[in-house]
Write a structure and sequence with these properties.
- By secondary structure, the protein is α/β, with parallel strands linked by helices.
- The chain has a single domain, classed as 3-Layer(aba) Sandwich (Rossmann fold), CATH 3.40.50.970.
- It has helices at residues 23-33, 48-59, 74-88, 100-104, 106-115, 141-146, and strands at 38-41, 67-70, 92-96, 119-123.
- It has a four-stranded parallel β-sheet with strand order 2-1-3-4, with helices on one face.
- Strand 1, helix 2 and strand 2 form a beta-alpha-beta unit.
- The longest helix has 15 residues, at 74-88.
- It starts with 22 loop residues before the first helix and ends with a helix.
């Protein structure tokens, strides 16, 4: 071995990639425990922690990990999750943007609520900071605008 890690030469090995058990990982593990098989998502700046968990699960070929299905719009994501849950009776999850994404799925949320269908809807915000004083904190203008 020449002392250079496989990450440094651009060829990472799964065992070389660090993984910290974070709130995002715990959230996904909770969904798995609840029986969620699919995550209907429209991801953005509020989901970097979840994207890291998705990537780690993919690299490790984690078998029990929910299938992530990207939807072009939040209304579509919730409508598909609603339909799947209505057909199977199994609770599914929707991950979407905070602010405009939550607004975009309002009609589908009304439909799911009236149908009494088991769907978990989650819109999150990244932790924002003023000067980056919190690990994982974001200082982007959009975070302040969204809050």
């Amino acid at each position: 071995m020449n002392g250079t890690s496989s990450i440094a030469n651009g060829n990472p090995k799964v065992q070389d990639l660090p993984f910290r058990y974070t709130a995002s990982a715990a959230f996904i593990d909770t969904l798995i425990t609840a029986g969620v098989k699919y995550l209907f998502v429209n991801l953005g700046t509020d989901h970097p922690g979840l994207v890291e968990v998705f990537a780690h699960a993919s690299l490790n070929q984690r078998r029990n990990f929910p299938r992530v299905l990207t939807c072009p719009n939040e209304m579509v994501a919730l409508t598909v999750a609603h339909s799947y849950a209505q057909i199977t009776g199994e609770c599914q999850a929707v991950l979407l943007h905070v602010e405009t994404g939550t607004l975009a799925m309002a009609g589908a949320l009304h439909n799911a609520a009236k149908s009494r269908v088991p769907v978990l809807v989650w819109a999150g915000a990244s932790p924002s900071t003023i000067e980056g004083e919190v690990l994982g904190g974001r200082t982007e203008f959009i975070q302040f605008q969204q809050e």
